[in-house]
Amino acid sequence: MSQSDRGLRRLAAGTLLVAFQGTTAPGWVLSELENGLGGVTLFGFNVADPGQVLDLTTSLRGAGEPVISLDEEGGDVTRLAYHVGSPYPGNAALGAVDDVELTRRVYRAIGSELAACGINLDMAPSADVNTEADNPVIGTRSFGTDAELVARHTVAAVQGLQSVSVAACVKHFPGHGATRVDSHLAVPVVDVSMDVLRARELAPFRAAIGAGAKSVMTAHVAVPVVTGATPATLSGAALTGLLRGELGYDGVVITDALDMHAITKSVGLAGGAVLSIAAGSDLLCLGPLPTYDDVLAIIAEIVSSVRDGRLPLVRLEEAAARVAALRSWAGAPEQNSAEQSSVGQNVVGLHAARRAVRLTGAATPLVEPLVIEVDTPPTIAVGDVPWGVGPWLPEAEIVRVKPAAADVAGLLAKAVNRSLVVVVKDAHRHHESQDLVSALVAARPDTTVIEMGLPVWRPDSAAYIATYGAARANAQAAVELLTA
């Protein structure tokens, strides 16, 4: 391979954020990092404990200069605490409190924890304005339904992360909040006028850019007024025209995971990679599914597209310059912060969760409590993160049921002469959950219902606790309120 060929391949590899299975880096990742690979995205299956993550990131840095990223939003979407649940409430809880200094403190604590593990990019915060209550993928990941509220908390989150030299990645541009389709599965459409888009979806991104956000993540969402039927991730009108041009953004543009069906079922993984770079993205997050063979095929397709004129070389060089500037800004990982300790994290996280939790009605004192947790299928973005109140109510009997298969009569019989607590998650999106809760409350008006998603639907009676999220901190705050 000639020197120019090696240089081109290095530029192509430099656009990729790859993933891998396991808690140590495979040889191919280390080898590709030596040859210019852009970096990695870590997932829950890469995490055992903070010490192991630091060992992993240290080995990655020993092979190259990688961007090391993961999704640590707090709340439902966590990677470092994937196996136990996050000690921080998520955006919906922070938006409900509406204290921007608290949001800044929470994200600074998150950033401190990431920096201590050697991570220099957080795929957060979500800047989506969640105007569609039935949104299957955003929900509690959003600060709320009001664009101005979302904008001010997005700025606070960016400032909190970047104050400890962890780059923020504001997502999902140009907005995933008004959708009823999960882009993991298909292409959602946000069919609004340009005036509505500017006033609502774009407002938090404009504010984040003004606050110096180091990166922005694209959405696999079609916005007909801008992109036609094309997802924004593949649209030059969205990434170059709107984001770079109108909003004046010159930081790193990162794609949402390209292994989502919105891309793979339309233009394919390698094809989507080329189209997205051409549209204006700088780093391609591949997601957890692509193999090393897929990575090699993507690199080869990018190289081929430059040679045959589909992708200008200057576009790759521009991406490389932006990513280099990001690496230079991040520098060495920050490992000295009072908030990085587990005690500090728990203090700020639990404090925020306590301020967010809301009780309507009067919860009765607990007597041999029976807790019925209504099973809710996890979204792909969240994954199978534990949730529920069990860890904080050791004296309770916990029963988790699938709502369609629940034996209402049997549950009520088990609850005779006992306190009944029913825990749900996003009941407004699941009619079977609503039916089960309504049946239990009708028979037992003294039931306490804990909603660990968005508090959109509630039964006509019963004490009702809204946590605005299912993180570990949210659960503890709810139980404290229940047992006060």
From TrEMBL:
GO terms for molecular function: hydrolase activity, acting on glycosyl bonds. Pfam families: Glyco_hydro_3. It comes from the Bacteria. PROSITE patterns: GLYCOSYL_HYDROL_F3. Signal peptide: none annotated. InterPro entries: GH, Glyco_hydro_3_AS, Glyco_hydro_3_N, Glyco_hydro_3_N_sf, NagZ_Beta-hexosaminidase. Keywords: Glycosidase, Hydrolase. Gene3D superfamilies: Glycoside hydrolase, family 3, N-terminal domain. It is an enzyme of class 3 (hydrolase). This is Glycoside hydrolase family 3 protein.
